[in-house]
Amino acid sequence: MITIDINQIGKERLSKLESYKASVAAALATLESRNGAGNDFTGWLDLPCEITPDFIAEIDAAAKTLRENCSVVVVAGIGGSYLGARAVIEAFANSFQWLIGDKKNPTIVFAGHNISEDYLFELTEFLKDKNFGVINISKSGTTTETALAFRLLKAQCEKQRGIDMARKVIVAITDAKKGAARTTADKEGYKSFIIPDNVGGRYSVLTPVGLLPIAVAGYDIKKLVEGACDMRLRTLGSVPFEQNPAAVYAAARNLLYKGGKKIEILVNFCPKLHFFAEWWKQLYGESEGKDGKAIYPASVDFSTDLHSMGQWIQQGERTIFETVISVDNVQHSLIVPSDAENVDGLNFLAGKHVDQVNKMAELGTRLAHIDGGVPNIRITLPQLNEYWLGQLIYMFEKACGISGYLLGVNPFDQPGVEAYKKNMFALLDKPGYEKESALIKDKIKALE
């Protein structure tokens, strides 16, 4: 099983854990009874165990069409509409897939998550000689970053591949009835999947939002869903606190926060988990960062970042704690060779697996940071595969809901995200933003 070890958060905090259990149980009950803030966005709670074989087959069939007709598939989305899929795909992809390619599955690239002209120009140049398709993921179809990218990609796909083929290799994942993306999908006859109304973007990786791109990349979405379903059963309110990893994680991080630990650093010693950490940062940052509250979610890739951030973590301000994701069994085998001259002095490692060296770097780092006053939570996966990653995804989602209610915030809205959009639309003279445009011009003068 996935295990969680909180023994290194500090003896004093561990002694307080017993008195904290009632609050955690109440938060978990509020979440599962769907009577807390944002309860209309809790459809993800039971979702993994409600996904049917027929639904998986429908996703797989759409993925097969894209695989058979595309060498590249562009996933257009932002935030939860792309980070979940990317987290899973990058976790399993060959680290050098860009160079070696994949004979069986299309290369997956991402767009619609920025407004960089250089990025979009270089993407369109890259696609010029490719048989590419597009998965357009947008609830409304009007999110600027994604809509802009899709406008460019749709035009290029139709020009390069023809209208009929474009209709075959463009898939929409959007609202069931309304919005610009739904209107376009219906008009053009695209294959489409629905984003459930009761599932917010950052909790949507186990909907078609994440499942279709992951399936196109060639990974087993059935196993991913099975893992999440099994973790749902392990995190129900009826499960004793000590056996419920979501409850334990939520309790530990909130105890640390109340004790002045304002920054959580998600640590991995496996670079394949880099984008998993990006997904995790959005999940917790957007869910909890409200009302002047919440832990700031950060991440590092060790041992790489030990040579950049390691000094600060070891001896900087003691407002941090670490959550380490540890993988027991790696995918490959590589032995350190012996060298007759031993100029580098590494013969003491000869005959050892590289992962043994990495595991000792992990243990040594944890010991050093704990000695340096950094509380440590360790989450261990038996292996990095679809089943265990599905479990980890659901565990973090469930813990996030519990943790948000412990903080006293709505973990399912994101009102603060709209502020930059209003300013941007006013600055670009979007119709309907005339009043905001006048106000923002006054603010600009004040800045000058």
Descriptive notes:
- This protein has helices at 11-33, 47-50, 53-69, 83-92, 97-100, 117-127, 144-161, 163-169, 180-188, 208-216, 221-234, 245-258, 274-288, 310-315, 354-371, 386-407, 418-427, 434-447, and strands spanning 3-8, 72-76, 107-111, 132-137, 170-174, 191-194, 263-268, 296-301, 320-329, 376-383.
- The longest helix is centred in the first third of the chain and has 23 residues, at 11-33.
- The protein has a 5-stranded mixed beta sheet with strand order 1-10-9-7-8, with helices on both faces. Strands 3-2-4-5-6 form a 5-stranded parallel beta sheet, sandwiched between helices.
- The protein is globular.
- It has 18 helices and 10 strands.
- It has 448 residues and is α/β, with parallel strands linked by helices.
- The model has no long low-confidence stretch (mean pLDDT 95).
- Helix 7 (144-161) packs across helix 8, helix 11 crosses helix 16 (386-407) and helix 17 packs across helix 18 (434-447).
Radius of gyration: 23 Å
Terminal Cα separation, in Å? 58 Å
Trace the largest sheet across and list its strands. Answer: 1-10-9-7-8
Rounded average pLDDT? 95
Secondary structure tally, helices: 18
Main β-sheet: number of strands, strand sense, barrel status? 5 strands, mixed
Structural class designation: alpha/beta
Strand content: 5-15%
| Uncertain spans | none
Strand elements, count? 10
Which term fits the overall shape?
globular
Helix-strand sequence: EHHHEHHEHEHHEHEHHHEHEHEHEHHH
Helix content: 40-55%
